[in-house]
Amino acid sequence: MSLPLTKMKNLIQFILIPVAVLMSTTGAEEVKYVEVGHTVTLPVTEEQSYMYWYFGEGDGLQLAWINPFGGTSILSSKEGPEGIWKDKLSLSPKELTIKNIQKGNFGTFICKVINNKKPTTVITYKVFELKVSIFPASPLVLGEDLNLACEVQAPRGQNPRISWLNPQETEDTNSVRSGTINKKVTNQDNGLWTCVVNNKENRAETSVIVIDLEPAPLRHQYTSTSSSLTIPCYFPTRISWEQIKTKGIKEVQWDFSPKLSSSKESSKGKRLFSLSVENITWMGDQGRGLTHVPTLKKGNLSLTTNRAEKDDGGAYTCSIEFKNDMRLTRTINVEVLEIISSPGIELISGQQLNLNCTTGHALPSDIRVKWIPPKSSVHSLGSDHHPANLTIPEVGLSDRGNWKCELWQNNILLTYAVIKLNIEFKLSVWMVVTICGTAVIVILICILALILHRHRQMEVEQLLSLSGSALAQAISSLLETPGLYVFSDILELPNVRELENGPHAPVYQLLNLFAYGTYCDYKERAASLPELTPAQRNKLRHLSIISLASNLKCLPYSLLLQQLELKNVRELEDLLIEAVYCDIIQGKLDQRNQQVEVDCSVGRDLGPNELPNIINTLQEWCTGCEAVLCGIEEQVSRANQYRESQLKVKVQVETEVSNLQKTLKASAASPSSGPAPAGAASNQDADQPAEPRDPASSQEPRQPGKKSSKVKGLRGSGKIWSKSN
């Protein structure tokens, strides 16, 4: 059933096509301009039944056809000359598309639209080549000549309008003739340029790359002696280092011109660095501490330093010269912020302090200064708009620490500088006298200690020359010497150590007992030790009292009688009184409580295990001293805060008193109060306002309540004033 129907349709098509060809035809012609390699679309707006596409005048090469039944045919690569139409054509009922158009594809395209109800429509397209060129080839250095040309092969007798659209999509007015531009290239010329013929549908694009450095800061670049410094000079990221090298770099340099106000350097420019183009390395350094950033091959020529110096302020010029004599330069003006303290950073409490936040020149009007004092400071600076020169009449200990000065512009922090102030106590006359007196006493004690040490050294030197029985006899005599309570240095003598294993070992053991032991230790070992003389026995008991006093402040009589083996309290008190007179101990006897209170005592030789305990005790003492100092500083800070608050109260009271006086003067001069008597006006003080009087009440006694109320108000103010002072 379907096969006869298909044959019938083909038969009808075969009959109708010749008939349609014999009918009258109408035609339309349109010109298109296309760049080689681009795509062109030839649209058909007519209602069609059959559509045939030809290339060339008359009955040229048939490219494609389409019928209303879905049948299509496109020229194959074998049918076209030299394969110029291979994979280039695509057909739809509304258009013919030619992709990647080449030289042989330009020409006349004819479309015949056949409809049984209408005459045959013939549409003609003339496709011409649109050619754009740029000289010299991109990229171009800023300021270099830019030549753009747009050429078309126009039909005979036609003169198409050719114009250029710049990267901002606006028509450029620098054409020297139709389709040609010659101008000095600028940053605005970077991007796609478009050649437009007759209308915006016929267009071709070309890219212009402009080599230029990123813009320098509009005014100044601010840094400080507390901050790092980076001097920028770099190409935009859209430009690669390889593109830059294609222009032929001749030299790259960094120059520096210091400020005119600089006293250490002349204002003449100095060469800082130059780039070796052959091996891409920087050469030269003027000792300014500047180094180049490590991203040179990314087009970054910037310089940097970790900490800016005062003399780093000035003009830095980065210049790149190319082989075509084109040159790019950027000048960066660097301002270094610093804080100048007068009279210095070492101050005494009570001194006047002047802090100047400056760059060496007056700051622009749109830049504001903000001071940040230490957290412990009692000075409140109020708003964020502060003067560059800050004056503090009297500094206190709370003002020591870091003072920070910030530069702000349009709510943007530009830089900041920090200065550290060291403020010490103010010494009074009595404090100076006390310190000097203490120093004299310390010097005298040192001299006395030196004399005693020298005397002791002479005794030790005498012992060094003895040995055997003579040495043992000298040691026994030494143990009886008054005022001698330290024996460790004698024990360390070589000849004394030899006694430890010889026949005089008991003498050595007795000397060791006097150095580290007590009277109880002697009684336990009395059988192996020499018998003590009365003087030695008395000294050993004194040494035992020193050992007991190092552990107990109050020594009971019962303990002393037991440790010293004394018969009665009378002997004990005589021994204690003797120890006090010999400056062995300092204290008092408490006969009621049967004890002795020891304030201090002389020292004994340190045992081998006593040194760590002494170190721990001294460490605890140092910790306690630091805590006390912190407490004193806190109290001083509170006192300063209280003083500041009292000064504010004083100012407030002065203001209230002044306002009250003005009110009284105004009420006295008011016309409603009536004229004052002449005598009263003449006798009244010029500074005191005249008190108005009512005529009706002048003959009556003044009410005490009102009088006391007025006087009380003034007296109350006076009391507050006196307290604030």
SS content category: alpha+beta
Strand content: 25-35%
> Percent range for helical residues?
25-40%
Please describe the biggest sheet, giving its number of strands, its sense, and whether it closes into a barrel: 9 strands, mixed
As a whole number of angstroms, the C-alpha radius of gyration is: 55 Å
Number of helical segments with 4 or more residues: 14
Averaged pLDDT: 80
Give the helix/strand layout:
Blueprint: H1 2-22, E1 25-34, E2 40-43, E3 50-55, E4 61-66, E5 72-74, E6 89-92, E7 95-98, E8 107-115, E9 118-135, E10 140-141, E11 145-152, E12 162-165, E13 175-177, E14 180-184, E15 191-197, E16 199-208, E17 210-211, E18 221-224, E19 229-231, H2 241-246, E20 249-258, E21 270-276, E22 281-283, E23 291-292, E24 303-305, E25 314-322, E26 327-342, E27 346-348, E28 353-358, E29 368-372, E30 389-392, E31 401-409, E32 412-424, H3 429-464, H4 468-478, H5 488-491, H6 494-497, H7 505-516, H8 519-524, H9 534-549, E33 554-556, H10 557-564, H11 569-581, E34 585-590, E35 595-601, H12 611-668, H13 678-683, H14 704-724
Subcellular location: Cytoplasm; Nucleus
Domain PCI: 442-603
GO biological process, one term: COP9 signalosome assembly
